Structure formats: structure tokens, C-alpha cells
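Researcher: For the annotation table, I need C-alpha cells for Penicillin-binding protein. Please keep the output clean. Sequence:
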Amino acid sequence: MQNFFNKLKIFFRSQSWHKFTSGFNIFYDVTKRLVFVLILILFFGSIFVGGIGLGYFVSVTMDTTPPPKEELSAEITNLELVSNIYYDNDEPISAVRTDLVREKTSIDQISEFVITGLVDTEDSHFYEHHGVVPKAVLRALIQEATGFGGQVTGGSTLTQQLVKQQILTNEVTFERKANEILLSYYLEDFFSKDEIIESYLNVSSFGRNSNGQNIAGIEAAANGVFGVSAKDLSLPQAAFLVGLPQNPYVYTPYEQYGEVKKDQSAGIERMQTVLYRMYREGDLTHTEYEEAKNYDITKDFIGPTSVATSPQSYLYQAAERETLDILVDLKLKEDGVSRNNINENTDLSDYYYNQAAQELSTAGYKVKTTINKKIYDSMQSATQNTIGNLGPTYSDTFKDETSGEEVTEDAPLQAGSVLLENKTGKVLGFVAGRDFETSQLDHAFSTRRSPGSTIKPLLVYGPAISENLIYPANLLADTKIEYKQQDGTTWEPSNFGGTISNKFVTVRHALEESLNNPTIKLYLEMLDKGISAEPYLKNMGINSIGSNEYANPSLAVGGTETGPTNAEQTSAFSTFGNNGKHTDYYMIESITNRNGEVIYQHESTTKDVFDEATNYIVADMLRDVITNGTASGLPSMLNFSSDNLIGKTGTSEEFRDIWFIGSTPNITLSSWIGYDNTHETRIVSQYDGYGFPSTRNLIYWSALANSLNNVDNSLLTSGSFTQPSSVYTDKVYKSTGTAGGTVSLPNNRTYRIGGQQVEDLFKQNHPPIQPTYHLLPGSTDEDLTKFWSALTKERDRQNKAKKREEERQNNNSNNNNNTNDNDNDDSNDNDDNPDENANSDNDSSEDADETSDN
């Protein structure tokens, strides 16, 4: 061991140790100096940054005049600022209803546990500061000036929280923060600490009560959650309620309709945080803390109860719903959360929508809609004057699930309609139902129904023309379909009335007469060629149809699991009235806060769906629906000219939905009638004594349109569909819908196209096609065999007839020659009548439409 220490002494005295210590001393000295310089930089930098922040604070507040005490008092104690909804001309529709329950109380009627817990948890220096905590303000200033630390924060005091709740908005900006600080100082000057706490506890949100209503104020919370007054709250109860305002809809023990949440862990953990801080601040003994922490608070929650709600109107309901969607979207954007997140998370969705509902009911907003009062009222009147003549009211008998008793309920025919301005997407008016007091179901914006044949131009004919698969003069087979479905069954569709013509019809005729089988065959051709209609429908605002449904040919005639709403279908159809462009529909024009600041202004989104040539051709075919097709009875019902009107009828399976959608270059108007089928399935039957279903709906549409025309005679008559230069008129052969030419047939024969020609519209980039054997889109081999066999048989018949005619004419010529000879031989022979052969059979042969090379 002695030898070891001797070696250490020698090392420490050696040159190596001397070099090591010298190097370390230099390193230490440099490091110490660098740290000192860094501290100086940070110190003076903080002063500099703080100075900048302080200067900015002064700049944004120097012109601010302290509000009078009375005004501040009104602001911080105001329990509710009413929001209002208006028509497009600023005429009021309604004040925003609220299910918010508030009960005001005084501080001497509030448990000391509540006051102590609130201060210890939210603002432990409450009785020491003058509205703000300076170090927190400095931290906020540095964050704002340097950008470090993310958003401007700052450990708001109770006074600041009260200012933010009652006076300012929730936006996170330095200017708002500066005003918050300034107003907090004013508040502390004007009011005592007890007055500030009292106001805070009276205005703060505490989530929901046992019937699902929103509650604000400690008294409403104590009654609504525990069934006691605020002054009688126990320590655990007080701690639970004190924890709620930080995140009321996460910590509340109740669901939206008053059911007790299955998972109470979030609220209980928050309660224990409150208890711990009370213990940490010395306001609870260890025994009190442990007893309260281990207390089962869930046994104190009162059970769900029910509350009566007063009905409003379809208009109020729709406007409120869209406003809430907008407020949620604004909050999602602020929080960096996507709409998909809340669509997939019910709890998260409830949280945001409850926040939005509370904001709307208490923030004093002015909500301006696009609804024209005269138009809206005229649509309601037309509906009430007509609906009673369109179908019977049935009686449904069913067992009430709650009472178990047998109940009888009326099931009246319902109606829905939406009027849109094509270019802007504005909803000018709508009909959501027959009677709001008896049924709040919204048939304009909420219910999803089969669109029936109104989907045909959107899904099939429009995309097929756009993709140059067809033009109006193309032929389609109206023949039998046997489609094997995935479940092994065979689908055999037919046209209206179960008929199939077994003929070959033009595209134009198939659409104007709404023939199902030719449409389905065309859609099958689209699927076979990989032409997807899904992007077209999505660009027209129809997103409810699942991607898997587009492979199902029944979709071509309206067969869908989740059909569009009336508004969605009307909006999609408005594309044809807007030159192929689609603008999303909307009802809320703007939202203005109580200070007159616009927090939301609608901005329209327009998408190009169809090129102008495609759109004009489809619109032209839809005009034929009204002049020659399934809606040909409509013009005689109108009190205005239908020259610029296009439209489409629609009937879903078993007459459950009856539609007509009409469009002009200015507006699009829909009409739908049907039954809700809540308990029993009802249909609009042609045997119920009210006439043909489609005709009834045309009567309803015409009643709406005539009433609108009386309000504004330019609404449905202005504008015109102008043929673009990309569309021209050409001729095709009627028998094939093609240009002329020769076709090779499977039996080694050829067929030369000829005969009668017809005119129709064509796109410049899609002229009449040359004839081929497979010229019928979606046709089967059987269809083609039948088609060409019919043409060749007709040609053969005409050729034979022509040959017989030629032979007869030859015979007549020979007979005439013989007669002339006889006359020359015996001019006095008068036994033969010279006109006898002239009056003999003189069947004129038809010009053959087709000829062949044999």
C-alpha cells in the first residue's frame, strides 16, 4: 500500500500532471466566462424583449378609456346575452332558445368549501394580487416577442378568467391579452374580492344537470348534480363542482340526455386535484383530505330526470343546426382538430357541440340567414293549401316501448322542398315538413331518402356524355336484365309498371321517359369501361353514398342504402342550371358578435363538374322531360312560361318517394312527397283515391312554383340556356344512331347503314360515330343478335317488296305494250277496259332503309 501512495506522489509532481491541471484550469476559466456572458445576454435580452413587449402593451392600451363601473358591473354579472337569428333583410326570425339553466346566488349562500377550493385550485394568490400576477404577464410578453413557448399563455387569475368569460373573446392574441390585463386591473379597482368570486361562481359553466340541460352558476350546479343548495355542499361535493369549470363537458357526470356517464374517472381525478391543492395550501387537515379523497362521490349524483321542451319551427331548427356546425368548425380550426376526428369520436363531438351550443345561447350573436321571408312564407302557404289533396292520412297502431301500452298515431303524407340560387348556393326558402308541432323531422335537410330516377342524369347520363361514351341519338336496349348479385340472388329490374318494351330506344328517349333498363345497361357499360361516377357526385356535394355502392347497378335507378337529403339532391341538380358548375348550398350568411365584429362570413365554393357542351346537351334532354316526357303535364299547370325550365321526375321502389326537381338558369326547386314510415310502411299508392303519384307531385311542384312566381315573377323566368360553340347539330341514321357505313356481321354478311336520318346535338369533340357491330352501350350478345337480326329481316323484307314492285312494274309495262299492239290490230275492239290494269293492285314499295352487299 505504501508503494501505491509513493507512486501517486511521483505522478502528481510529474510534468504530465502539470499539463493536465493547466489544461483543465484553462477549460474551466473559458467555460466560466462563457456562462457569465450567456447570463448577461439572457438578462439584458429579457429586459430588451420585455421592453419591446411592454412598449407594445402600452401602444395597444394607451388609448383605452376605463369603462364606467356600472358598465363593468353589467358585463361581469350578465347571466345571458341573447343571440338572434334573422332573415336576409335583417328581419328577426327568432331569439336563440337555450336549455341553459342558471340560478343566481350570493356569496354568503355558498359553502366555504367551494370558495376555498376555487381559490386554492385556480388562483392561490387571489387575495394578494391586483388582478394579474406580474411574473405571468412577463412570461406572456417574452413568449409573444420571441415566439418561444408556443401560444401566448400566462396562468390567468380568477379576475382575468372572469374578464375573458364575460367581456372578451377566446381568441389567443397579444392585443386581447393586453386588454384582458388592463380590464382586470379596472375590475380590481371597482370591485371587492368577494364580488369578483361571487360573479365568477354565478356565470361559469358547470356542464350538464341530471336531465341533460346545460347549467351555469354554482347554485344550478349544486341542485342539478347533487340535489342540494350551494350552501349545503359537503367537502367532496364542493371539490367535485369546483373542478368542473376548467373543462365542464369532460368532467360533467351526465351525458347529453341526462344519463349518468359510465366512466367518471376524469371528473373524479379532477376532484382529487382540487382536494390536494386545498390540502397543500393548508386549508385541509391530513384527516380531512384522506376522508374526502376516498369518498365515493358517484353515490351522490342524482338520477336522470326529464324536462319539457318548447317547439320552435323548421326554420329555426335548420338555422340553429347550421350555425352550430359553423361554430364547431371555427373551434376545431382554432384547436387544430379535424372534422374527421369528431366524426369518429362521439364524446369529442359532444364536447365541441355542447361548447358551441352554450356559446350560441349566451354570446349575443347576430346570425344572418339567406332566407327570403316572402319566399319562405309563400312556400309554407302553398304546401298547406295543397298537401291535404295529395294523399291520405293513415293511422298507425303500435306498442309504446316505455309504457307497453298500445298507441294509435296519425301518419300523414309528408312534403319537402328546397329552393336554391344556382350560382351562389343560397337557400332562398324551403319546406321541411307538414306540421312542426306534430313532427319535427326535417324533410329538407335531415332525412335521407332514395332519390329515385332524379339520380339518372347526375350519375349516368351526365358522366356518360362527359366521358364521350354516348350522345343523345345513341341507341340503348330496353330489354330484359338478369343481374347476379353478391348474395347469389338474381336482380330482374323493369320499367314503370313492370314493363319492358324489348325495343331499341335513343338515349334522349330513355331519359325523357325515365326508362330503367336502358339506363341500367348504360351504367353497366360505364362500370365495364372503368368510368367512375363517384367523383362527379362528390363534386356535386353528394357524399352520403358509400364508395362500395357505386359498383351496384341498382344505384342507377336510385337504389342506395344512404340516399341524399332533399337539399343535397337539389343542390346537385342545380349544376345543370349553372352551366355545369356546382356551388355548395348554404343558409347562414354571417355571424356577428355583440361588438359588431363579423366572426364568420360565408365564402362560396364552386367546382367545375361538367364542361359546357356536356351540360348543355344534358339540359336539352331534361327539357324534353317537360315537353315530351314524364313531366309533360306540368306546363299546363303553371302560371308562367316553362320555356327555360328543365327537370326530372323520380319514383323510388314501391312508391315510397315521389320527386320532381326543376331548374332554370337562375334557381332550382325540388318537391318531394312520401310517408315517414316510423311504425308501418306506407306508400304513395295510385289506388288510394288521390290520383297518380307522379301527377300529384307535379301538382305540388306547380303550386310552389306558381306561388313563388306571384312573389317574384323573374325568379323562375329569367335567364336562358344558350347553346355553346362546342355543341352543334348533325344527322345520324335513325336505325342505328350512327353515321353511314358498312358493318360486318357474325354470319359473314355485311350490312350497309342507310335510310332515314334524324338530327340531334353533338359535342365538337364527339361527332356521330362510325357504325360497328357493338354499337349498343351495355348490350348483351342476345341484344346485339336481336338488334341486327331485326335490321336484316327488315332489309330483306324491304328488298323482297322492292323486287316484287319491280316485277309488277315490268309486268304492267309488258301488258301495256301488248294492249297497244292489240289496239293497233283492232282499234274497234271495245270489250277490254283500257284502265283495268291501271286500277289493279298498286302497292307502292317502301324505300329500303338498309341495303346490303351480297
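Researcher: And a one-line annotation?
Model: The chain has five domains: 1-63, 76-97+310-369, 98-299, 419-717, 727-795.
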